[in-house]
Each structure stands twice: as C-alpha cells, then as structure tokens.
Design a protein that fits this description.
The protein is built from 14 helices and no strands. With 312 residues, the protein is mainly α. The chain has 3 domains: 150 residues, no CATH class; 63 residues; 76 residues.
Length: 312
C-alpha cells in the first residue's frame, strides 16, 4: 500500500463513517460519483435511502478505483491486491453490522444484489460493456468467497497500516507511529491465533499480505523510529510460554524426586546427622514445591478458562 491509496478510504469515511448511525462530514447524495452507484428507485433516480444502499455504493466506488489502479501504467500488483483486500474487509465490516441482506460471502451478495438486480443497471451497463472488470473480479473469487464475518476481522489491521503510512507521510510525531505499530502487532497476533480456527488458504493469504506490508513500513520508517517485530508463529509464542513453565515444573519435580531418593538412602544408613540434614532439606523444599504447584495449577486453570471463553 501507500499513502495515496490509503487516502481513498479516508475520503470514503468522510461520507460513510465506520459508525453508520453517525452522519458523515459530507453528504453522500452531494457527491456525484457516489450517487451514480446508488440503486435506481421507482422515481428513476439513483438514491441511497438506507445503509445497505449507501455501503454498496461505497463498495462499487472502491471497486472502480481498484480496477482503475490495475489498468494504470504504473500498476503495482502488490498495492492493487492490498487495496482490494482492504476494500472487501471494509465492506465486510459494514455488512456484518447491518440487516437487510442474507449473504454470508461478498461473492453471494454481489451476485444477488448487484448483478441479478435491475437497480444497478447503470453501473453494469458502463462497467461490463466498456471495461474488463468482470474478468478482474473473477480472478479474486477466492477472496470474495471468504466468510463475511471472518473477513471483517481484518478491517482494523488495515486501518492501522494506513494510519502508519499517514504518520510517515505527514511526519506525525514518533509516539503515534509507535503506538499504531504496537497496536497493529497485537491485532496481527489476534488474527494469527484466529486462523487456527478457520480453513482455507485465503485467510492465510491475507495474513501474509498484512505481514509483507508491515515489513515494507518497517523499511520505510528506519530513519524515523524502529517498529516492533512480529513473531512469525504466534502459536509458538503461547506454546513457548507453556513449555517454559512446563520446564520449570519438570525441574522442580526432578529436584523433589532427587530429594526423596536421597532421603530414602538416608534411612538406610545409621548416620543420624545425615538423616537430620536430608529431612531439613525435604521439609523446606517441599513447602516451596507445594506453593509452586498451587500457583502453576491456578494459572493453567485461568488460561484454560480464557481459551474456552474466547472460543465460545
């Protein structure tokens, strides 16, 4: 991505804020290009009279922007792919919040409410007769067939990426750039963890695109401030913590076993001083082991409870 592409989403949000219950800074009906993507009503005019019509108009406008980028002489495939993914994550985010449709995938929504509807004939007559937009969309079917609810989860991550591009472009203070980067890393780790519960390569394809773009940002920002690293395997993070604690537990139990072993030896000999010495070690270390085991079990219980709650 780059700041110029990100600004298209900033521009869109002046008309269609993320919270659709709040009026945009500008009215959608006052922008000719947006209005042309509204459905045709009984009056014969293009009008967006509800939130579904508004966000569909926003999506079609973004689709036009994305296609225009793809046929530009300065076409960059990576930027176009990222823009397309950002676009469908925004649309999924909005679709996921409103009623008035029964689609679970953008491909299904687009086919039913745009292609098979006469309300968008103006768009279809222009886009499908004079451009190769249909071919362009067909190449993205794998992404368009991701579940809307899953796809919407990526929206915040893309917003943070664009925020960082804006921070760098406008020389915003370093603290904001660092804060955005830290927030992005957290969001990426959440998405990476969620990927364990989803099937298909498309979800992982988006994760890879996010990581690649973040690495690009890191290279750009080297002269400003270093950005935090993203752990390549988030599951390894959690398993590493578990392994670390498990190793500690194993070590403690090994010590406990060794003490018990030597204590057994001490009872087989007649050296009273040696017996007393081993008994002293056994008593004091045993108390520490019990405290550790109590702490360890309580922590694992809380982790299991949180994991169960997150999966419900």
């Amino acid at each position: 991505m780059n700041d110029d592409l990100c600004r298209k989403f900033v521009f869109l949000r002046t008309y269609l804020p993320d919270d659709l219950s709040v009026n945009g800074t500008l009215e959608l009906k006052d922008h000719k290009n947006f209005k042309n993507y509204c459905p045709v009503t009984e009056s014969g005019e293009n009008e967006c009279n509800n939130n579904l019509g508004k966000i569909t108009a926003g999506f079609l406008w973004l689709l036009e922007q994305c296609y225009s980028i793809s046929i530009n002489s300065s076409y960059n495939e990576n930027n176009t792919n990222l823009f397309f993914i950002y676009m469908i994550s925004w649309f999924s985010y909005q679709l996921n919040k409103i009623k008035g449709h029964d689609s679970t995938k953008i491909k299904d929504f687009y086919t039913k409410y745009v292609i098979n509807s006469h309300k968008y004939d103006n768009f279809k007559n222009t886009a499908y007769k004079f451009t190769k937009i249909e071919e362009f969309i067909d190449k993205k079917n794998d992404l368009l067939n991701i579940n809307i609810q899953d796809l919407s989860k990526f929206y915040d991550a893309f917003k943070l990426l664009c925020s960082m591009y804006g921070d760098i472009s406008t020389n915003t203070d370093v603290k904001k750039l660092s804060d955005d980067a830290n927030e992005f890393v957290k969001k990426y780790q959440e998405l990476k963890g969620y990927s364990n519960h989803t099937d298909g390569n498309s979800y992982k394809q988006i994760l890879s695109a996010l990581l690649t773009d973040y690495d690009n940002l890191k290279n750009i920002s080297t002269n400003i401030t270093p950005l935090p690293e993203i752990t390549a395997n988030v599951s390894a993070l959690s398993s590493g913590d578990t392994s670390s604690t498990g190793n500690k537990l194993f070590t403690v139990l090994s010590i406990f076993g060794a003490i018990a072993f030597f204590l057994g030896i001490s009872y087989k000999v007649n050296n009273k001083e040696l017996k007393n010495y081993f008994y002293y070690i056994y008593t004091n270390v045993n108390k520490k082991i019990i405290r550790f085991l109590t702490f360890y079990i309580s922590i694992r219980y809380l982790d299991s409870g949180n994991e169960l709650k997150n999966n419900i």
